[in-house]
């Protein structure tokens, strides 16, 4: 999924419709809850992708300018809510002590972006009259 | 538009999809911006409807448990952003000094709920696999 900004957690809208002549537009956001608790959001899924890319939670947190403890809190929360954990620790190898996405993690990321893409498509069709 | 709760400004989601067996569901919200400033949101439109119903900003604010100054701030902001003002003061008559929606205000309220209904319809079709 393309990143629209360097710091996606500061994005104020996940999707925005076309602006009319009066500069009015529909904006919106979507997220996924499990049992009424936030499970996957734009920022959380970006974090998952960065963990996969960087190979560690600390590097992922750094590149999002998020504190390590906050990032770990989010990962633990997602792992707790998921039927199968999304992020697992890796041991050994160069540097050791990293983390990576599980297969379930990759599936969750893909499903989230699928929902977001559908939502962006819906929003892009919303044209305001502008009164 | 039906109110889902007594205090709509505390609603955490404007729309939610069906929960799957794992209690996962898509949730989301939409709002309307003018020139990248919030113009109409669920709470703002509820306020407009209550002004129309109660005949004054103060009564509308009270019934939303919102401070008068906050409600007036929102009304002034919406009037400033709208091509034609949404709320006008009324004078004379019993009690005097009330407020009511203009025709543009009624049109804006209707357009907002139309967008929300479309969004709710879209969300209701989002079924999570739940990984």
- Inertia-based shape of chain A: elongated
Distance between the termini of chain A: 34 Å
Strand arrangement across the biggest beta sheet of chain A: 1-2-3
This entry's quaternary arrangement is homodimer
Strand count of chain A: 5
Give a brief outline of the structure.
The structure is a homodimer of 131-residue chains. Chain A is an alpha+beta fold and 131 residues long.
Structure description:
By secondary structure, chain A is of the alpha+beta class. Helices cover 43% and strands 19% of the residues of chain A. The first copy, chain A, contains four helices and five strands. In chain A, strands 1-2-3 form a three-stranded antiparallel sheet. A two-stranded antiparallel ribbon of chain A has the order 4-5. Mean pLDDT of chain A is 88; it is low at 2-10.
Write the layout of secondary structure elements.
Two copies of one chain form a homodimer.
Chain A (H helix, E strand, L loop, with lengths): L14 E2 L7 E11 L2 E4 L1 H13 L2 H7 L4 H14 L5 E4 L7 E4 L1 H22 L7
Antiparallel strand pairs in A: 1-2, 2-3, 4-5
